[in-house]
Amino acid sequence: MGKRSYIVILLLLLSLRVLAQLEPLSTQYMYSQLMINPGYAGVRNAFSVNIMARHQWMGIDGAPVNYNVSVHSPLNKSMVSLGGALNSYQVGPTQNNRVNFYYSYLIRLRYNMFMSMGVTAITNHYGFKGLDWKLIDQEDPDFVGTSQNSFKPNFGAGLFIYSPSFYFGFSIPQFLAYGFKNKDSDQILTEVKRHYYISSGYGFALNKEFYLKPSTLVRFVENGMYSIDANVEMLYSEIFSVGISYRINNSIAFIGGFRISDNINMHYSYDLSTAPSGISKGSHEITLSFDTNKILRRNRNRMFSKKKKEESGAMRSIRYF
Fold it and tell me: Measured between alpha carbons, how far is 217 from 36 in angstroms, rounded to an integer?
């Protein structure tokens, strides 16, 4: 690790208390919504698996890294869905590992619109590897100390309203707020603040082959911090897509995706920072999703339909989001 990398990460750690108040967020939020909204469980009306990996500021040791694996599915012949997720987020010597369990219940609002209400139970593990971290100043009292671990429970809730081409979500992924301190220096290493998420998207056909998908995500933190994402993608024949995303006063990202098979989709994004932080390294993110209906029994109560509920008008799940 070069001297510049040491300085960047040291500055990052010195401001870690502020940075940790914002939870890690995927640029591809429209494909990983279970990370922020328990109400998304079962929305795809399929047995769904989503794998996400995000590396920020490539080339800088200790820069943020986030991995997430989630599974969710409706229960056969019911309006109940269950799911689970594993998430690992690491910045320098600090790490947050999270296990989520999801439950949601689906309500039909109209013939072609549903509302899914969900809750999640969470186990958070916070770790600090003080002995394994090399600092410019080895006597820095804020970071000198032994490795330590802490486990904290939490819970959250959310709702997700959707039609074949529109969605709106509101969620509070973690209700409880608390901090994790260095036992040797009493320095707060990471802090959980209550977050509020609002997401929405709409898709419409330009012609028989091209489909436009604008979406947005807004999150508020109790201390007044916030972030706003605006995204637009162009889908061609439901085979591949290209798009651009902008996080206000933070970054701009380019997104591309394609359908590998009828059940598997992959998306990749590359972020460039626009914030005046001096960190110009790009961030990479990749998402792989898998959906199958083969292990589920047909449940017409979960399908979109025409006003007369004609069989030919039924669709299994949300189509474009």
Answer: 10
